[in-house]
Amino acid sequence: MVPGARLVILGRQGAGKGTQCMRLARHYVVPHVSTGDIFRASVKAGSEFGLRAEEYMLAGKLVPDEIVVGVVRERLCQRDARARGFVLDGFPRTAAQAEALDEMLGDEGMPLDLTIDLEIDEEDALRRLADRRVCSTCATIYSTARPPAIDWTCDNCGGEVVQRQDDTEDAIRKRLADYNELTTPLIDWYEKRDSLVRIDAIGSPDDVLRRLVSAIDSRKLR
Ligand code: AMP
Question: Which are the contacts of 72, defined by CB distance < 8 A and separation ≥ 6?
Fold first, then answer.
């Protein structure tokens, strides 16, 4: 049995976090916990909570910390995450979220194995986001350069592959600006605790996955 892992993946929007987190979750047999996917699922379900989250998402704004922290706490307390670990994608994004995560994992006796910064510069990120397409059912990520095999129908589940509603130019710029201001400081924060590795996000998805797995496995063997 493959040992589990507790991982946080940071990186600008467009770095390929979603794609790599899905692959890492499969590799280590742990749940992929994407706060963006959780919010999109509640928007789709039309819940009260989803309607509130949607206002922030469409404007490219961050959902308030206390809401996001509550959602993550609930997810990480579930049995699969407790037993095997998790790949956290899109969380934490602010100092308050990082501190809340630290406290929650400390309380549960589940320390992080590693935090990874998937590095990409802003120009490449903008280009990738404009090209990004996503399955509206299972959230598998494609691009105009790597479309599904048949007519924008997801290879994985047959769902419709579309451009994300919040991948407009204005919302993308707002998300990247928030990343620079609020999330970049977390990279130093984790680095000071010796729990950060930087990985180059440029390359084929298979190459990037190999780099990630090798960094994670060597850290787990330390
Ligand atoms: P993502 O799929 O990670 O790009 O997230 C899509 C949207 O969900 C973001 O633009 C935010 O509005 C919201 N969101 C996701 N994760 C967080 C988070 N950790 N903190 C605040 N808002 C978030």
Answer: 33, 35, 88, 91, 97, 101, 104
- pLDDT single digits (tens) 68-108: 999 999 999 999 999 999 999 999 999 999 999 999 999 98
The three-class DSSP label of residue 114 is strand
Of 3, 30, 2, 12, nearest to 116 by C-alpha is 12
Query: Rounded CA gap, 40 and 125, in Å?
Result: 21
CB under 6 Å to ligand 1: residues? 13, 35-36, 39, 56-57, 60-63, 68, 90-91, 93, 97, 166, 175
35 CA to centre of ligand 1 in angstroms: 6
* Distances from the Cα of 201 to the Cα of 4, 135, 213, angstroms: 23, 22, 13
CA of 89 from ligand 1 middle (Å) equals: 10
- The pTM (predicted TM-score) of the whole model is 0.90
Active-site annotation, residues: 17, 93, 132, 164, 175
Residue 150's H or E segment, with its range, is none
Per the DSSP assignment, residues forming a β-bridge with 164 are none
List the chain residues with pLDDT less than 70. 222
Atom of ligand 1 nearest to the CA of 56: 12
